[in-house]
Design a protein that fits this description.
337 residues, alpha/beta, Rossmann fold, Dihydrodipicolinate Reductase, domain 2, 8-stranded mixed sheet, 6-stranded parallel sheet, 33% helix, globular
């Protein structure tokens, strides 16, 4: 195989467009083909992003001999089928989050990757950003003492419900699956373990999916994590890591900017609400520039795994653990698909 990945993009929706924009600047990847349900959609996408080949079917894309890896950007309910079909065709797969519609499907996908000797990575692009790496170093390096509490939020408000795949139970939609999965992955990443206690509540939309959910996890050693996610509500969408000696705030954790991405370390006791100015908490804000577009870094990390044998940005065990927790949360909230 050449020392670059020849990518095939499966699907032409919003996330596929973002990936294509980023991939254009990747160091170790090139766009080789795109596949859609119709030739018209595939050809329009190919023209926009200067992709040499367009397939009017998913099958045509995954069996294309000029493609080394498939980026699966289809609805959640279709990840399982087309990831496994890609493996059978000899391709590696970068699959959009969440990995599957349930943990049984996720396990079958992992087993298929192992059986075919292919790379499978769940596409949590935030893991490739320097801010995520820097915060992990700060926490493991003891800069906030012992980690005791994780707080995350990922919400947005949309009024477009009709024909929105996120509001379609048959396509495994819902807030937990769409954005709550980020909070879950982040919490498990920093906890380094599966939770031993899970509590949740939420609101089930008339379409049968959750449009708002909140939860609390208890991890080994007493670490607690809380999260909120929603598709019909606005929130701050920040992440906090709170320890015995201070806390870290990440104002834009899920899609950090390329320039001046930031996180803040606060190492003192919070001030009294009526305290004088001299009691204000000292804050150390750090800024980082990323070397490339977020999706380009994700693609290059994937290429390093395929071409160099580098460690995956997210392991199969982590993805299975995330999916199992999503299954538990949907059951508690009352979502069925």
């Amino acid at each position: 195989m050449a020392q670059v990945i020849r990518w095939g993009i499966l699907g032409t929706g919003n996330i596929a467009r973002q990936f294509a924009e980023g991939l254009a600047t990747a160091r170790r990847g090139v766009m080789a083909a795109v596949g859609s349900r119709t030739a018209e959609a595939a050809e329009a996408f190919a023209r926009t992003y200067h992709i040499p080949k367009a397939h009017g079917s998913y099958e045509g894309l995954v069996t294309d001999p000029g493609v080394d890896a498939v980026y699966v950007s289809l609805p959640n309910s279709m990840h399982h089928e087309w990831t496994i079909r890609s493996f059978a065709a000899g391709k590696h797969v970068l699959c959009e989050k969440p990995l599957a519609a349930n943990v049984a499907e996720a396990q079958e996908m992992v087993d298929a990757a192992d059986r075919h000797g292919r790379v499978l990575v769940e596409a949590f692009m935030y893991r490739s950003h320097p801010v995520t790496h820097a915060v992990r170093r700060a926490v493991t390096g003891g800069e906030i003492g012992q980690l005791k509490l994780i707080r995350t939020s990922f919400c947005y408000r949309t009024t477009r419900v009709r024909e929105n795949i996120r509001f379609n139970a048959a396509l495994a939609g819902g807030a937990l699956m769409d954005v709550g999965c980020y909070c879950i992955d982040f919490s498990r990443l920093f906890a380094g373990a599966d939770p031993v206690a899970v509590h949740a509540t939420g609101h089930v939309h008339e379409t049968g999916v959750d449009d708002l959910a909140a939860g609390v996890f208890g991890f080994p050693g007493g670490l607690v994590a809380s999260f909120t996610c929603g598709m019909t509500v606005q929130a701050d969408n920040t992440a906090y890591l709170c320890g015995t000696e201070g806390f870290i705030e990440i104002p834009v954790p899920w899609k950090p900017p390329r320039e001046k991405a930031q996180y803040t370390i606060v190492r003192a006791t919070p001030p009294r609400m009526d305290g004088p100015v001299k009691d204000m908490v000292p804050r150390q804000t750090k800024y980082l520039d990323a070397p490339a577009h977020l999706y380009a870094m994700e693609a290059d990390d994937f290429a390093a795994t395929v071409l160099d044998g580098a460690k995956q940005t997210i392991s199969w065990a982590e993805s299975i653990g995330n999916m199992r927790l999503l299954d538990d949360l949907r059951r508690i909230v009352g979502v069925k698909f």
